[in-house]
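Q: What does the assembly look like in three dimensions?
Context provided by user:
Components: two
Sequences:
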Amino acid sequence: MSHSTSRRDFLKAAGGAAVGLGAAVVIRVEPAHATPAEMQEAMRTIIGSAPVRRGKVKLELPPLIENGNAVPLTVSVDSPMTEADHVRAVHVFTEKNPQPYVASFHLSPRAGRARVTTRIRLADTQTVTAVSELSDGSFWSDSASIVVTLAACLEDPI
Amino acid sequence: MANALINVPQRAKRGEIIEIKTLISHVMETGFRRTQVGAVIPRNIIRRFVCTYNGAEVFSADLHPAISANPFIVFTTTATETGTLAFSWTGDNGFSVTESAPITVE
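A: Here is the predicted structure of the complete assembly.
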């Protein structure tokens, strides 16, 4: 009896420890994915001091790409695209490319749908961030992590 | 000379949202690469892409070296009236290409 109880206690304790460890890992991972200072600075140059909230934006990137020279990227924003409420611009930033800027797309209510696709270069396994600027002046963002096996900047010199 | 490919539906219903695909041949040299002797290859990219619908700007993009060679851009617009969609790409070394596509709106 006492053996069984101690076993149960042990499992409880072990489970608790595992949950604790999991939480600790989640907390530890978060800052590791935080955007480096340069990208933050670049974002501030373009969007000013306005707060950037998560949500509304959906950044689609493949989770793993072999060739960083042409990575398909799609940004869509949840917006009715009316005169009163539309997406003004979508900016894309990277954290480990030589430059943080990727592209800025300028939209209008006439776009009908806030969705843009292009192909980008990525120099390393990293996190890409898309920030959208709405007509009410608010900013929303989404990030995606991608593993790049052949980096864009390591191609053979000509 | 640069070749541009544009995919625009020829006909659309009024108010329909149409998808436009554009592809242009361009090296998009980043300016970060070096030759075998170590000299930096100067930057040569397309900086700006603009799409106008009967003269009114409906979409534009500022591009940076992180855009792949042969920039491919897909976006949408609302078919409002019969007319012309004009596309222009401008960039380093005086690069400038314009293309247009007609559209019939019913």
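Follow-up: The helical segments of chain A are 2-32, 37-47.
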